[in-house]
Write a structure and sequence with these properties.
With 460 residues, the chain is α/β, with parallel strands linked by helices. Helix content is 38%, strand content 16%. Bound molecules: 4'-deoxy-4'-aminopyridoxal-5'-phosphate.
Length: 460
């Protein structure tokens, strides 16, 4: 497929000037901007239009935030309604009709057992702030300081969230093996590999000499996102629920990326029937604006007033946009749609493995899809699988961009190409995404042995 043609003519100097000034003035720590040198000026649904007039199919969706795509009419209408009503836009954590409606709608989507006995804490607007709140909550409620987290986890960039993720420096965090089928830490994969990872957790908790500090909680992602799109088997999640319940350890489900229909259920824990003690939510719940909350069982609600405060906990526009999104996803059964369409897309991506030996593994749940790229010719397999191919993944991402498709990279070695399209994706759009991806994969593989000058870094 040919690269997308410019649809409107804009002065190329303006577009290039903006990019140049960005690289001169913005931090060396910038992320997406490095691998996606575009200047978005308009967007609708799946499509972003750049300042240079080029159009892109956006399968990054604000890192999984845009459940309904860009500028969905119901989201825009909800925002306009608040503005036109003269309601205050910022009210700290005061009660408002907008917040009341958001909370009612959110509770209506939750697993019943949790909703019937839940409290909600509005946090600072980022997912990482809600993770901080969750960890503080369980540490206060249990009086313990340890934490159980998993290999490959990503929970955010603030200190405690970072500890719970791979960059841990905190000795109180005990890292347990996440069931990563393709690179099973026990070398066997499948249900048996997942069972061994559960047994490892059980053994550490019950061995008085394991050196594991008493855990205040266990935090997990039902599908690891940044870790490389790795769905945990339902049986394993139920084992984690049993292990934590038996030992009075609160279970925290981080649904920041998996929530709001993304994986084919409204909340990813629903696939397994597991009811966590705490759920962490952000991204899509704000309908494209910043919003983060934790919802938890009322028995844990023993922290003091002000225990987790913050100025920006009352963004009325985000609550209105979020409530509209939640309602739209629920009423239009978009979780079911994500399951069906995601299943079909997964099948087509798996078909690529037959013709592209660099496709090591294809996996996902609903519209959270990942393709792990490997070097099939390299010496000696690693973890029972060929070594990951991060340079090739970066080349595929670039080739996708050249063809008007925005994809994300992730995984332990940044070798997993990730697709997070909006849940409103049509069949035709899905076909266009897959065509462009297949074409980009073929092109990047062809030039694989040429040196790459990619400027990518981890982008979260
Ligand atoms: N948890 C998960 C599972 C995430 O995927 C992310 C972000 N990708 C976070 C927490 C942190 O969210 P934020 O970037 O909004 O702080």
């Amino acid at each position: 497929m040919a690269a997308t043609e410019p649809t409107t003519v804009a002065p190329p100097a303006a577009h290039e000037g903006i990019l140049r000034r960005q690289s001169l003035r913005e931090s060396a720590a910038r992320t997406y901007a490095r691998s996606l040198p575009i200047v978005p000026v308009r967007a609708r649904g799946l499509t972003i239009e750049g300042a240079d007039g080029r159009r892109y199919l956006d399968c990054l969706s604000g890192a999984g935030t845009l459940a309904l795509g860009h500028n969905h009419p119901v989201v825009l209408e909800a925002i306009r309604k608040v503005i036109d009503s003269g309601a205050p836009l910022h009210v700290l954590d005061l009660a408002t009709p907008v917040k009341d409606a958001f909370t009612t709608e959110l509770f209506a989507t939750l697993p019943r057992e949790l909703a019937e006995d839940a409290r909600i804490q509005f946090c600072g607007p980022a997912g990482t702030d809600a993770v901080e709140a969750a960890l503080k909550l369980v540490r206060t409620a249990t009086g313990r300081t340890g934490l159980l987290a998993f290999t490959g986890a990503y929970h955010g960039m603030t200190a405690a969230a970072l500890d719970a993720s791979g960059g841990a420096t905190d000795v109180r965090v005990t890292r347990l093996p996440y069931p990563y089928d393709y690179r099973c830490p026990f070398g066997i994969g499948g249900e048996r590999g997942a069972e061994l990872s559960a047994r490892w957790a059980e053994n550490l908790l019950d061995d008085p000499k394991s050196g594991v500090p008493d855990p205040a909680g266990m935090i997990l992602e039902p599908v690891q996102g940044e870790g490389g799109v790795i769905p945990a088997p339902d049986t394993w999640l139920r084992r984690m629920r049993q292990i934590t319940a038996d030992r009075s350890i609160p279970l925290i489900a981080d649904e920041v990326q998996t929530g709001v229909g993304r994986t084919g259920a409204f909340w990813a824990v629903e696939h397994s029937g597991v009811v966590p003690d705490v759920m962490v939510m952000s991204k899509a719940i704000g309908g494209s604006l910043p919003l983060a909350v934790i919802v938890y069982k009322s028995a844990l609600d023993v922290w003091q007033p002000g225990a987790h405060a913050g100025t920006f906990r009352g963004n009325q526009l985000a609550m209105a946009a979020g409530a509209a999104t939640l309602t739209f996803v629920r009423e239009n059964r978009l979780a079911e749609r994500a399951a069906t369409l995601g299943g079909r897309m997964l099948g087509r991506l798996q078909g690529l493995a037959a013709t592209h030996p660099c496709v090591g593994d294809v996996r996902g749940r609903g519209l959270m899809l990942g393709v792990e790229l490997v070097d099939p010719d390299a010496d000696g397999p690693r973890d029972g699988a060929p070594p990951p191919a991060p340079a090739l993944a970066a080349a595929v991402q670039r080739a996708c961009l050249d063809r008007g498709l925005i994809v994300e990279l992730g995984g332990r070695h940044s070798a997993v190409v990730r697709l997070l399209p909006p849940l409103t994706l049509t069949d035709e759009q899905a076909a266009a995404v897959l065509d462009r991806f297949a074409d980009a994969l073929t092109a990047a593989q062809r030039t694989r042995h040429q040196p790459l000058t990619s400027d990518t870094g981890p982008s979260r």
